[in-house]
Amino acid sequence: MKKLLQIAGGALLVYIVIVMGIAVIPAIDLSKTPPGPGVKPLTALQAEGSAVYAANGCAYCHTQQVRPLAEDKVFGRPSAPGDFAYQTPELLGSERTGPDLSTIGSSKPSDVWQYIHLFDPRAVVPESVMPNFKFLFHVVTTVPPGETAVPVPAAFAPKQGEVIPTRQAKALVAYLLSLKQTPMPGYAMNGGMGGMTSAAPAAAPAPTAAASGGYSYDAAKGQSLFMANCSACHQATGEGIPGAFPPLKGNAAVDADNPTLHIHTVLQGAHGVTIGGVAYSSVMPPFADQLSDADIANIVNYERSSWGNHAKPATAADVAAVRAKGP
Amino acid sequence: MQATVTAQHSAVSAEDDRALAAVFSAYTVSATCWLLFATAVGLLLAFKFGAPDFWAAKYLTFGRLRPIHTNDTFYGWASIGLVGLAYYVAARSSGTKLYSIKLAWIGLALFNLAAVAGTIALELGYNWGDLEYREWPWPIRLVFLAALLVTGWNLIGTVARRTTEDIYLSNWYTVCGVLWTCVIAIVATLPWYQHGLGQVAISGFYMHNAVGMWFTPLALGVFYYAIPKILSRPIYSYALGVFAFWTNLLFYPLLGGHHFLFSPLPWWLQTTAIVFSVAMLVPVWGGSANYLLTMRGRYRDMTHSYPLMFIFVAVIGYLFGSTQGTVEAFRSMQAIWHLTNFTVGHSHLTMYGFVTFAVWGGIYALLPLATHKSPGRLGIALHFWMALVGSFIYVIALSIGGTIQGLDWLHQRPFIQSVTDMAPYWVWRGAGGLLMFLSHIVFAWNVWRMTSGQTGNAGSPILARTEGAAA
Prior knowledge:
Number of domains of chain A: 2
Order of helices and strands of chain B: HHHHHHHHHHHHHHHH
Number of domains of chain B: 1
Oligomer: heterodimer
Helix content of chain B: over 70%
Mean pLDDT of chain B: 94
Helix content of chain A: 25-40%
Number of helices of chain A: 10
Pfam families (chain B): COX1
Mean pLDDT of chain A: 88
Largest interface: A-B, 78 and 82 residues
Strand content of chain B: under 5%
Keywords (chain B): Electron transport, Membrane, Respiratory chain, Transmembrane, Transmembrane helix, Transport
Number of helices of chain B: 16
CATH superfamily of chain B: Cytochrome c oxidase-like, subunit I domain
Domain Cytochrome oxidase subunit I profile (chain B): 205-448
Strand content of chain A: under 5%
Transmembrane segments (chain B): 20-47, 74-91, 103-126, 138-160, 172-193, 205-226, 235-255, 267-293, 305-321, 349-370, 382-406, 426-448
CATH topology of the largest domain in chain A: Cytochrome Bc1 Complex, Chain D, domain 2
Protein name (chain B): Cytochrome-c oxidase
CATH topology of chain B: Cytochrome C Oxidase, Chain A
CATH architecture of the largest domain in chain A: Orthogonal Bundle
């Protein structure tokens, strides 16, 4: 018995000491991490949404941790300890089959986009392998007062009836839209939103000169920036989603010779605008903080020269001029 | 140690033998049911990567089924299978009967209760966050803890009444594995001290300790008993086994933080984890060398002993999987592989290539000794080759695909490209997974023949020898 006691008791004691040192004591200490500047607790509805997020295992494919690596810049600034002060259970995740969601509330601020994407991810991202969450929605024949139907594109909508979100879907979207990073001086690698490139406008690579008429535009760069930042709503076809996101194809602002309104919209975002007689309720995020003048010029020029649009190209100087005027 | 692992029936009656056989059989059958269920769920999950709208209803959505797959392979299949083996090894290597047959049955009921309740809770969307491998709500985790306590008590009681002076090495691993896991269960379950980043620290600790201080020691316990038993020769170095035991205890608990490299966890915690991930090479290479040197010169025995082949694969899985874990833990490697499907390949190389093959090797080697029934040669061969080829395809596909995924991110391509680039590798993973699942159906048939059905023609190498000696 003595021998058994020595081995089992000894191994158990050693283990308890190690566990206290490596896990329990650091955990007690880290649990007291104060919230970072501007980090606020979730509202009741957002907290309910966080529970829906956890219950349906969103964290198995989506992380909420931005690493201090160049490849993670697209998701925001590196996560700071204070970002997680109110996140219990922790939802940092261990796999990134889908994108990180630390700043999804600022990179995809439109609740309409979130609803369509949850109802059928392939309606807005054709290559997505995310499951649909139709069970978070009702299909009704008449929309009850106080509810708004989700403008699901016809190809993905139910054959009959209107799609309205359940309370769970509303809570989940409220939670997703709450996922933003607060600015942290000295910590910012870009503006804290889902941008592709560095924040400093001057740091952008010089556009390569295109052959035509003394105006430089990097078509490949423009297309990749468009795919990364714009196509989730406006779609790769430039046709948008009827009733939800306006088309850029044949869009008066995009196809106009004066690029000011087009550039202004990309820089400052928009919401509640009427385009081609259709009123759009969804919110477009501003890109001024995360894209350089040259990048925005590349994007608008890609849009101005694609899908049958033939507008006069803009230059980085045009973007700088509109930027200087402010919102 | 030869004397410790062979023929000690002096203090044990035939009735005790039958009771032990019944316990061992019941644990094996129960574990097998969980294996079938959990890997059927796994196969469905693999299919969903190609057909995300297939069975997307509330109770079949990916995010609810994934933790069911992981928890039921962990706590249904591997845990119950290993505890059944641990009971048999404890009683036989101690030359005594089980301390309490009744406690063994209570333990089995508690393990199953926890797994059934946990599965239902996850289905209904009741989980504890998405805290990997500890998603079951805390009352259910307490049931699992109760099962561990019962098992620990019973194992200690059994080893305490051994007829030998020494405690055989297998029992060091199994008894301590159960005790450590009680500590892990308490630390992971108590919610009051872990919030926010503090909970992240416990997640990192838990993810790796639940594997390395539970499945690893119990599976190594099987190695230390089954290899000498099959080959009828002592373990190469008892001292090396003891050395590996203590170094495993000192190094393994400290490496959990490597699951959160580059996270906001304190840098010292992450660096400590990397240092001890490297240190783990000492017990892993020491232990693996010990097993391989015990088999040295006897590899030809594998041609007519599938149990030995299963164990050989498990030893190689332990060596490769753990060494891969060390390589993965470096910051330079994590910058590519972290958060990709490479990790899923790694977890299957270890939980499948090592732990699951170890359980199978142990069952095929030892269950026929308890029940005096054997599987058929065809069945055991089919099981072995389908599982081996399937897991090869699985691990290689996700290792290549995960690397491509990581490189896509590194080159800052649009995120969706890392999804489309994975598509062919997810198909290969599904193909590998299908073979693995089919092998489990054959395994279930083999278990049936070893317990209740008609005995087969794959005679036990151990029984043949002991009966030959008696004749």
